[in-house]
Design brief:
13 helices; globular; 2 domains; alpha+beta; 8 strands; three-stranded antiparallel beta sheet; 318 residues
């Protein structure tokens, strides 16, 4: 794996119809969808079995929060994990591979669905396939498929679009993350939830990698949004974060607390990431992989801190 390949893999998670996939979709897939869906159900059932075994052994692994679903709630919140494990099984399944043929594209996609959902799904030829359709609502069927042309979606290609879905999907208020500058390219928002808790709003590593390959045009667009930049984190929450993380003790929190502003992000942080390309591909990839792991850890760590101001302060602030 190289950094270039990692960036290409992130870009490949966009979903779009392909002219070269139309003939195999019509010839190979559509006439055999009953058998294909049967194999999808077979592998989904196997994945369910794995998670149910973990659930029964561990009971509840954690409190269900965004990005940290509890096994007791499975499959709710496990969209990405289910998709990834089903894909591994499909790739290794000769019966499925024979059904779709050698010329049909099978890949993971990450899209914004109906302007409301973050969706981890599959593209199979020119078909959209969701093997975790019941992970938001249990009354939905486990498997759903459609022609891509029939799907109401957009690719996750701007921070503004991601924020718009996040506000609806998680029912959060979003504010600029100017307290942990290093996190900004991957997590430019703080989220304040209806419960009053403050989080980093998801480390979006797919967008980060695409942006790294595009000169951080998405991050710059966000910083050029004067309305966004003029929306400071409410003071009760800023104090909470400073009290919890301001001492910059790595054992307490893995990111440096170093308050800045949009200009600081633009002139000091983003150039550091843009310079990765000059390090040589192997060194740059190792740095990026370390960063994405760090961001996942920091996102979960802040959620587990469960930082909430007194209820009166929280109500007045948001």
């Amino acid at each position: 794996m190289t950094l270039v390949r990692a960036i290409e893999s992130a870009r490949a998670q966009d979903m779009r119809e392909r002219r070269d996939q139309e003939a195999p979709t019509v010839r190979r897939l559509l006439p055999h969808m009953a058998a294909i869906v049967e194999r999808l159900h077979f592998h989904r059932a196997a994945v369910d079995g794995v998670f149910f075994a973990k659930r029964d052994a561990k009971r509840r692994a954690s409190t269900a929060t965004a990005g940290e679903a509890g096994l007791a709630d499975y499959p709710l919140g496990f969209c990405g994990a289910i998709r990834d494990q089903v894909v591994e099984r499909l790739i290794a399944d000769p019966q499925f591979r024979e059904l779709i043929g050698p010329d049909v594209v099978l890949k993971k996609v990450f899209i914004l669905l109906k302007g409301v959902y973050f969706q981890n799904a599959l593209q199979l030829g020119n078909l959209y396939v969701d093997v975790a359709n019941d992970t938001v609502s249990l009354d939905k069927p486990k498997i759903e498929w459609l022609r891509i042309a029939e799907v109401d979606y957009e690719n996750a290609d701007s921070w503004a679009a991601v924020a718009a879905v996040g506000r609806k999907y998680y029912e959060v208020e979003l504010y600029p993350n100017f307290l942990f500058p290093l996190a900004f390219p991957s997590a430019p928002y703080f989220a304040i939830r209806a419960s009053g808790r403050i989080d980093l709003f998801q480390a979006q590593n797919v967008i980060f990698l695409k942006d790294l390959g595009d000169g951080f045009k998405r991050a710059h667009a966000l910083l050029d949004d004067s309305e966004f930049c003029a929306r400071p984190l409410p003071e009760p929450y800023r104090r909470l974060v400073e009290e919890a993380c301001g001492a910059n003790l790595h054992a307490a929190f893995p990111l440096e607390y170093a308050p800045t502003d949009a200009e600081g992000i633009r002139t000091q942080v983003l150039p550091q990431f843009a310079a990765l390309a000059k390090q040589g591909d192997a060194t740059a990839l190792a740095t990026v992989e370390h960063y994405t792991r760090l961001m996942q850890e920091a996102t979960l760590r802040l959620a587990r801190m469960n930082l909430r101001p007194p209820s009166d302060d929280a109500a007045a602030a948001v």
